[in-house]
Write a structure and sequence with these properties.
single chain, eight-stranded antiparallel beta sheet, 10 strands, globular
Length: 341
């Protein structure tokens, strides 16, 4: 029996996601309307763990709800990169020949930057993100047509207290940390890449299988833990340099040999990894100018289908479909909610 036949038999009894469980924007809007400020959804959004590690985790709950929500999309976002010979991709000091070349050069740059003071407890973290593959806009429209008042500020701009003591995290999301916790975790990371990755795996553990989690390989766990931390803001530049050097050592990590276009239309570096037997790959996007975190993308690499319902038809996903497409365009420390840099 060949390997592909064995693979199909292993998956034969594994259900595909039930679209009734996929609620991209509605859940987040409903949370906000209900008065919880969308804190739970915001915390889950920070995780964005690789979706569909196994069809058997289709009902994982919050984390999979975030990632699987993108399956309701009808649009296919192209992932064709710009011509690698174009001026934008060859200008400057970029070296995209390998993960080590790209990430170590980024680390060299970051190590030369001055470390700013840690934000104060009373300050806020402002971020603006473009969601290129979201059902939120459609959900907002549906609620408005139904006469439901959509909370103000429910858009791409976010303000989170640096020390968000009021965050309603019940501990079920083991990846969630406040901005201050993430800053201090990053600042305390060791220089040695192996020790750094071990520290991050311990900080962001694999979910309990009894609660719907799935065992990860060490390399998949390392990539996820690094990705979770890099989404935090701010991270000291010297700490980010150590993280990039460690990320370059994770088995299976690759870098595209050209810049790619993100959801905001910018050309960015894509550090990618696909776990064995997964249907998607995760792209970690990095700004080629200052090497800051620029976004996250989840791209289909193997065809699969969704289960239809009375309200939603079944859909087929094909290689190249983008399920998650987040571009962070702004991030800053501000003194008050609503303030922009």
């Amino acid at each position: 029996m060949d390997e592909m036949t064995q693979l199909r038999e292993l998956r034969a009894d594994a259900p595909v996601p039930d679209r009734a469980a996929l609620a991209p924007g509605r859940e987040r809007l409903t949370d906000a309307i209900a008065g919880n400020g969308g804190r739970r959804t915001l915390a889950l959004r920070l995780r964005l763990t690789p979706m569909l590690r196994d069809w058997r985790v289709a009902s994982l709950g919050a984390v999979v709800a975030v990632t699987a929500a993108a399956l309701v999309l009808t649009q296919v976002v192209g992932v064709q990169a710009p011509d690698p010979t174009s001026p934008a991709t060859v200008a400057g000091d970029l070296d995209l020949t390998s993960p080590a070349a790209a990430l170590n050069r980024a680390a060299d740059y970051l190590e030369r930057q001055e470390v700013p003071p840690e934000p104060r407890s009373g300050q806020w973290i402002y971020t603006r993100e473009v969601d290129g593959a979201s059902g939120n806009a459609e959900a907002v429209k549906e609620l408005q047509e139904a006469g439901v008042e959509v909370p103000p500020g429910f858009g791409p701009d976010r303000w989170v207290p640096y020390d968000d003591k009021a965050t309603g995290n019940d501990g079920s999301d083991t990846d969630f940390r406040t901005a201050r916790e993430s800053y201090r975790i990053a600042a305390a990371l060791p220089e040695d890449p192996e020790a750094l990755l071990a520290k991050l795996r311990a900080t962001f553990p694999t979910g309990d299988e009894a609660d719907g989690g799935k065992e990860e390989s060490e390399d998949a766990h390392s990539f996820r833990a690094v990705s979770v931390l890099l989404r935090s803001y701010p991270i000291p530049p010297d700490a980010m340099a150590r993280i990039y050097r460690a990320l370059a050592t994770v088995r299976g990590v690759k870098v595209t040999h050209h810049l790619v276009e993100d959801a905001a239309g910018r050309e960015v570096i894509a550090v990618v990894r696909q776990e064995h037997m997964e249907f998607t790959r995760t792209d970690l996007l990095i700004d080629p100018v200052d090497y800051s975190y620029a976004g996250t993308r989840e791209v289909v690499v193997e065809s699969f289908g969704t289960v239809g319902s009375d309200e939603e038809p079944a859909e087929q996903r094909e290689p190249g479909d983008v399920l998650i497409d987040i571009a962070r365009t702004h991030a800053a420390v501000v003194d008050a909610k609503g303030e922009k840099p």
